[in-house]
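haha ok so turns out i had the wrong file open the whole time. this is the CORRECT one, sorry everyone. sequence first:
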Amino acid sequence: MNQANELTHPGAENAHQPVEWITSTGLVSYEDALAAMEARADAIARGEASEAIWLLEHPPLYTAGTSARPEDLIEPDRFPVYEARRGGQYTYHGPGQRIVYVMLDVGKRGRDVRCFVRQLEDWVIATLAEFNLKGEIRPGRVGVWIARPDKTPLPDGTPREDKIAAIGIRLRKWVSFHGISINVEPDLSHFGGIVPCGITGHGVTSLVDLGLPVTMDDLDVALKRQFGPVFG
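then structure:
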């Protein structure tokens, strides 16, 4: 895979360059992506590669974070299941979902993991705002959510909200990998095989599901435009 080779073998001359953006076409296997991320994170930690943002899509699969509960995997035989070793619980990845793997040197960016996660959330929210969509975060619920006043409230009267983006990272020698997934136009029925992030009652949505004719390229442009204002 050319893109994975580029990610894994960036060359020492790139070590002090600005953040490198890499976009893969086609579907990238989870195994290839994980190996490439780990290699790039190690190279960044050694000072042999620049930081990188990798934009890609996966074939349909489920990943289990370090807090995943077995009972939340409702259909274990539906798609391949991978132990992700990132934070969080079960997450679905598949075509039509923009995966944003974030390999940044958190050690040089303040060594504050909570602040870094907030920056990731702020980045997603700023990106969604470019499409006049209000993304929000909720205490106790990881990711970015969209209020759905058009849906019937929960039995206890709580307003319905749908998740549009998931966030889960891992650090190695203060370099992050894994990252963000944003639903552009995935098959939302594929989320039915898990309890996404262990949260019941609320649903999952996408940009297209919300009536926004946003393409993957449109989202990538917005992500790149909003990265600098959030991360500097």
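The mean pLDDT is 90.
again sry for the mixup
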